[in-house]
Amino acid sequence: MMVRTRSGDRLEHIVDAALRVFVAQGFKGARVDQVAEAAGVGPGTIYLYARSKEALFELTLRAAFGEPLPAIESLPYEVEIGPAVVEWMWRRLRAVSPFDRLRAAASLPEPADARAEFLGVVDELWSWQARYWRALELLEKCAREWPELEMLFYMQFRRELLELGAQYLGRRMEQGHLLPYPDAGTAARVLAETVTFFAMHRHVRPDSADLQEELSRQTVLVLLDRGFLPPVAK
According to the model, what pLDDT value does residue 2 have? Predict the structure, then answer.
């Protein structure tokens, strides 16, 4: 009988496959055999690394948030999905989401350079989503399956961020630093969703996954610059 052994490379491969399956199917819809097929291994191999689907999901989410994978000798990973895990997800999301530029812009009465301020806010949002898009895709896909997580993610985290954006945009519009729009809240959502698609969602959209990162970022910055900032006088 061949003894199956664990390896760090295979763990990374399994976690990457699990990410794709959980994003596509959600937590409840995903099956361990689907992850095994995506990773090119047998289902039994998955259980060498994670004791259950719940453990595999948390392992994948922790990796997506940038935490180091566990040592091989500590596997298989084991956890029970419950309130403690949702609380951990919430704390981790808040910890990696400072948005210092946006918060500073929303509280600053007048900017020294409105264009630099605006592009800095947009670039901060892009950089955050580009770095954590895997974790954010997992949270968006699976939040609807846990009412408490959905409430925290959509009704608290996202709403707070959008309200902060609307506060910043609305003030700069009133001051004449940004082009005026009928509703600052809607404008904030247009800005946020534009960045979100190209920094984050494009990775899992078959028609957009081949878009180049830096070209996409530069194009979005130019489009939003022209859509929100008055033309520069020549």
Answer: 39
